[in-house]
Amino acid sequence: MSNKFDVVVIGAGPGGYVAAIRAAQLGLKTACVEKWVNKEGKSVLGGTCLNVGCIPSKALLEASHKFHEASHDFDDFGIQAKGISMDVKKMVGRKDKIVNQLTGGIAMLFKANGVTSFEGTGKLLAGKKVEVVGHDGQSQVLEAENVIVASGSVPVEIPPAPLTEGLIVDSTGALDFTETPKRLGVIGGGVIGLELGSVWGRLGSEVTVFEAMDTFLASVDQQIAKEVKKSLTKQGLEIELGARVTATEVKGKEVEVTFADAKGEHKKVFDKLIVCVGRKPYTQGVLADDSGVTLDERGFIFVDDNCRTSVPGVYAIGDAVRGPMLAHKASDEGVAVADLIAGRKAEVNYDAIPSVIYTFPEVAAVGKTEEELKASNVAYKTGVFPFAAAGRAMTNGSTEGMVKILAHAETDRVLGMHIFGQHAGELIHTGVIALEFASSAEDLALMCFAHPTLSEAVHEAALAVDGHAIHMANRKKR
């Protein structure tokens, strides 16, 4: 087998495997290198997202939500369900089965599209060569016309809370608890912390979330963030803001956490502690010293707007480069780079990348927040519609939250959409399309939305931008 390729991709996460498939579809001889080994010691594709990130966490979120619904909400619907219990091992087993199915699916897609897969660690050398060290220690060098580095990211570790087998874990370890901890501490009140806290909180854990910042979900539109905090607190999550963890001490099968806030120093004891204070680019060992590829001051691979590195023919995508650390952003970049290599036109619209927090209800956003528009001195108008006024939300028994649309005060162009509510992650794509096609709020207002649906709240929010909502009293425009 020849070791010369048109494209070699380092990493088979949602950026790398998508880039490899796309490149192969465009007629380029493509290879993909992946070092991930699963719990059974088998080489697998899919990276963090499929193995220990997006997919497994959603499997646990869905299972725990169904359990919570059956335990607390079924009675309202007239469903009598008594003596419900959760088999945590079975729940985790189902999660593993889904992961295996999807990672195996990528291997089949590689085969169907003619992508050559290499198992082992890939390192970019000088001259667009890629060294692959197999799991058996054997080394080989691939030659490439183009290289795409898609090495992803890893959880950030913090000195006050060193990981301790089974007691202090990162987000990966939190997906494999075999029983529900009675007292659970979560360091980090971001997306991952809130999702994992929700999973175990629904199953009966007393959850405390420590967030060092004074602002809850600082990057989220604050009108939405306030509602989310209220909702999660009502669900039983204790959220400590401005709380900096300064030390942890393992005492037998317990962990004592020391944290400081405006009132001073405090201690709290937990059965398990999850550390999820963010992620950092994984570039260690991926780039040889003479590869020519440069990193920025935060350790991300330096790229231009089209994901080109400082070396012609070498690209980098996903969590290893600037921009939001989101699987779909990585996939989008992967497709765009493959297209560019094949000589096609391509670009990623970074202004229209949605983000979702999979708590219940979900939180989803695309475009600018109200705070960002204020800071940029952009004249804007707002339309808000609560799910409490939507018929379908009532029939679903899920009336929490709202849809918020921000539009330019003069042009009426949609600048941002923010949703807190059931299925927000599905509803947000109306906003993505609106931003992608430079729609006005009036464009959305003039469309016909099916009734009764949750999507009608998007329609009503668009109408509300100009004070024309039908199913609620409109605020008088000044």
SS field, number of helical segments: 13
CATH topology of the largest domain: FAD/NAD(P)-binding domain
- The percent of residues in helical segments reads 25-40%
The first-level CATH class name of the largest domain? Alpha Beta
Our estimate of the beta-strand percent is 25-35%
**Radius of gyration in whole Å, from Cα?**
24 Å
From the N-terminal CA to the C-terminal CA, the straight-line distance is 72 Å
For the record, the count of structural domains works out to: 3
Shape: globular
Q: How many β-strand runs?
A: 22
Question: Structural class from helices and strands?
Answer: alpha/beta
Give the biggest beta sheet: 7 strands, mixed
CATH architecture title of the largest domain: 3-Layer(bba) Sandwich
Quick structural gist:
This protein has 478 residues and is of the alpha/beta class. 29% of the residues lie in helices and 25% in strands.
Description of the structure:
It is found in: Cytoplasm. Keywords: Cytoplasm, Disulfide bond, FAD, Flavoprotein, NAD, Oxidoreductase, Redox-active center. It catalyses: N(6)-[(R)-dihydrolipoyl]-L-lysyl-[protein] + NAD(+) = N(6)-[(R)-lipoyl]-L-lysyl-[protein] + NADH + H(+). It is an enzyme of class 1 (oxidoreductase). By secondary structure, this protein is α/β, with parallel strands linked by helices. The protein has three domains: 220 residues, FAD/NAD(P)-binding domain (3-Layer(bba) Sandwich), CATH 3.50.50; 110 residues, FAD/NAD(P)-binding domain; 113 residues, Enolase-like, domain 1 (2-Layer Sandwich). The protein has 13 helices and 22 strands. Strands 1, 2, 3, 4, 5, 6 and 17 form a seven-stranded mixed beta sheet that branches. Helix 1 packs parallel to helix 7, helix 3 runs antiparallel to helix 4 and helix 3 packs parallel to helix 5. 45% of the residues are buried.
